[in-house]
Amino acid sequence: MILTVMKRQRAGYLEGIVSIIVNTILFGFKLWAGIVSHSVALVADAWHTLSDSASSVIVIAGTKLSAKKADKEHPFGHGRWEHIAAIFIGVLLAIIAWYFIKDSYENFKARESADFGLLAIIVTILSIVTKEGLAQYAFYLSRKTHNLSVKADAWHHRTDALSSVIVLFGIMLKNYLWWIDSALGIIISLMLIYAAYGIIAESINKLLGEKPSDELVAKIKTIINSVEEKNLYPHHFHMHNYVNHKELTFHLIMDGELSIKESHEIVTKIENEIREKLAIESTIHVEPSDHD
To answer: Most confidently modeled of 6-15, 30-39, 45-54, 107-116?
Structure first.
């Protein structure tokens, strides 16, 4: 369990530092190209990239806070800071998106168009390749460590790559549609809002509590059957996920003729197996089979 926490912490730090360095450099190139091209879409894309650096700072801070050991006030640890950090990232995305929707609309009303050139094309292609590379790297780390804030940052990178794809598509249509830059600015902003919604919704669901997955319930039932051959019927599962610490409670129907000592021994074996195989602390409520 300690090793898992250390891996999560290391993944958060590593992904965050790499993201900050790469995104800050990429932001400079994209902002330069946007200013030269007078493109609100490119400038919005540049600030989207810089927001990745800001969100990576949040990832590092969230990882640091979530790794704090349990204390008297927080007996289950501080792991849920990862969810809170992910919500901050989502809110940041939504705020940025709103401002660029307004800018795009103002440019459309003023009939302002961008002057895309070779610089804009090169920088946009560079952005697509770089951001998708960062996304793949972050997704890889999140799969290995199950770090939610790193996963949120990966989606942030992915949306930035997709927004650059849209900008590149718009550049190809620049000679046919004067309003393409304003339209792209709005489309990119809507993508940001969609990404923000997904990140915030997933994090809030984790904080509010979710039912155990069917896969996890199946694993628990397999453990129960392997520990005790007697007829045992688990039900009423509840999971309390504190990221670095998980608490599981469920009811277990067993033979009502068993003594308290016998029931306790069976339950203790099951709890120990769940702890060892799934790294979950479980509390089991025993019910006699003849109970209504």
So the answer is: 30-39
| Cβ atoms of residues 131 and 161 within 8 Å | yes
What angle, rounded to 10 degrees, do the helices at 260-278 and 214-227 form?
A: 130
State the fold for domain 2-208: Alpha-lytic protease prodomain-like (1.20.1510)
Residues 156-166: b if buried by 16+ CB within 10 A, e if exposed:
bbbbbbbbbbb
Using an 8 Å Cβ cutoff, are 220 and 211 in contact? no
> Which fold does the domain 214-288 belong to in CATH?
Alpha-Beta Plaits (3.30.70)
Strand-pairing partners, residue 248, are 239, 282
pLDDT the model gives residue 159: 77
Supply angle C-alpha 195, 199, 201, rounded to 5.
115
pTM, full prediction: 0.59
Report whether 267 contacts 260 (CB < 8 A): no
Q: How far apart are CA 267 and CA 248, in angstroms?
A: 13
How confident is the model over 9-18, as pLDDT tens digits?
Answer: 666 677 778 8
- Domain segments of the chain: what residues? 2-208, 214-288
